[in-house]
Amino acid sequence: MKKILTSITTVLGLFVLSLPVIAQQNKLLDSAKNIFRAQPELASSLLVQVKTNAIKANDNNSLIAAELIEGNIAYFKGKHNEALKIYLHALGTAEKNNLHEDIAAICNEIGTLFKKNKDFKKALNYYTRALNEAININDNAQIANSHNNIGLVYEEDGAYQNALKQYQKSLQYYQKAKDKLGESYSLEYIGYVFGLMKNYDFALEYLQKSLSLRRELKDNYGIAVCLIELTEINRDKKDFNQAIVYAKQAISFCKEINYPDMLQQGYLLLSEIYEQKKDFAQAYQAHKNYATIKDSIFNVAKSKQINELQTQYDTEKKEQKISILHKENTIQKLKLTQRDGIIITISLAFLLSSIIGYLLYNRYKLRQNSRLQNEVIAQQDLATKAVLTAEENERKRIAGELHDGLGQMFSAVKLNLSALADHFEFKDEHGKKMYGKTLNLVDESCKEVRVISHQMAPNVLLKAGLASAIRDFIDKIDVKKLKVNLSTFGLQDRLDQNIEIVLYRVIQEAVNNVIKHAKANSLDIQLTKDEEGINAMIEDNGKGFDITQLEKFEGIGLKNIRTRVIYLNGTVDFSSKPGQGTLIAIFIPF
């Protein structure tokens, strides 16, 4: 017992002794975090001390935190390769010690780096991993942050519907975590993406909610951003008077908090709005104020640049003084090596000529290969188009044969059977029932032929357009087995016939796959048309599948979907998890 008490006392003593060290580490980390953008060199020197202490104390948390800030310093200096190297080293340490919270934080930073470099696929991979790690430790705030990051990737890639879903999930988790600051950002992101989708009423509603929260939290930067975005939405909505009100609020607030970047943005927006209102005097004054602020920002940056150049000049001057001391010795050495230099120069000239000749030949070969490849691609496009056109023509032919041939024959059989009933009496009740069943079978066959004919070449698609054809198709589905919700935006006008046919076939294929394989009871279909193209979202609540094993599930149905979308130069993405349903996102550009 005495030994146990002694051990406990020793451990407590070490713990108490470590408290000042931990406090010092946290203080250094906070200082570095606060100054790393304005004073990166000073922050780096603080981080060296943190890392030294962390390695001595085997403190992985402090080590990872220091490397994250180091990576951020490299990132903001534009040294992205160096930043990635630091982040990956920190990730290795976190993985080795099963620090899930740190893994999530690091993956978010790496995702941001790849997003900045427009590598959206890798950005999504890291953000998704960050999300999974956050879910693993049930960290609602980190889950929300990851959903926001994923949404930003989709938004930047133009997939606004996908972005909106991620922001809405983020909002739910921030509300669970009772993180009002995070909630304000999700509300802002939702409002902004609604603005991009030209759904201005929802955009204004969510941005005003975000503004209200940020005023409550006194988040000055966030308030300024919301006021600017509310100005933009009202301008796009053509509500110029309200846009001017928000622009003036933004300008007044940015002056109050000394925020020149947003101040110049406010004046620029105000100038554009007055110009659209034909109030050129006010537009000129606002633009004059914008130019003044812009020049002052430029002068600050220019002054900083001049100081940096002066420092560089002083350094070079010192180096020149040192070089003069060695100049005389160098001249003597140059005389001795001059002859050798001439020989080397001739050799290099010959070598350079050979290299240039090789490069020119190689360039010619690359051009030839490029032409050949373009020709192959063009032939493949023509072949694909021919296959799809032939398939559609064959569908129309078969539909016509079914409707005009087999359908008419079934109708004639039904009429003849009905007429026969008047010419003979049935021996017993069983014979009468068999006749009735036969007549019903013929009637059902007529209906089935008509349905198949319409599915293969729906007249409603040719007459009324895509939205009506899809609605007609899903109306024939038994709601007890599968409830289908269809929503369309911007499809009042007819589309190109090829686009309508391909999208109809793709959605028809997707719905049939859900009915056959997904075991779902609910299916959401959303079609949105904007200036860039058409977005189609098909989401079910079925059994789903492992997306990493897509090849195992990619039968004729999914291949048909891919082939048809690629034919229109579109993109298709599948998102699914076992037990969590499947989402198919399609984009067809105009």
Automatic annotation (TrEMBL):
Q: Where are the TPR repeats?
A: 144-177
Q: What class of enzyme is it?
A: transferase
Q: Which SMART domains match?
A: TPR
Q: Which Pfam families match?
A: HATPase_c (PF02518), HisKA_3 (PF07730), TPR_12 (PF13424), TPR_8 (PF13181)
Looking up Gene3D superfamilies in the UniProt record yields: 1.20.5.1930, Histidine kinase-like ATPase, C-terminal domain, Tetratricopeptide repeat domain
Q: From the UniProt record, which GO molecular function terms apply?
A: ATP binding; phosphorelay sensor kinase activity; protein dimerization activity
Under catalytic activity, the entry for this protein gives: ATP + protein L-histidine = ADP + protein N-phospho-L-histidine
Q: Which residues form the Histidine kinase domain?
A: 503-590
Entry EC number(s): 2.7.13.3
Q: What are the protein's UniProt keywords?
A: ATP-binding, Kinase, Membrane, Nucleotide-binding, Phosphoprotein, TPR repeat, Transferase, Transmembrane, Transmembrane helix, Two-component regulatory system
What are the TM regions of this chain, as residue ranges?
A: 341-361
One Gene Ontology cellular component annotation held by this UniProt entry: membrane
Protein name as annotated = histidine kinase
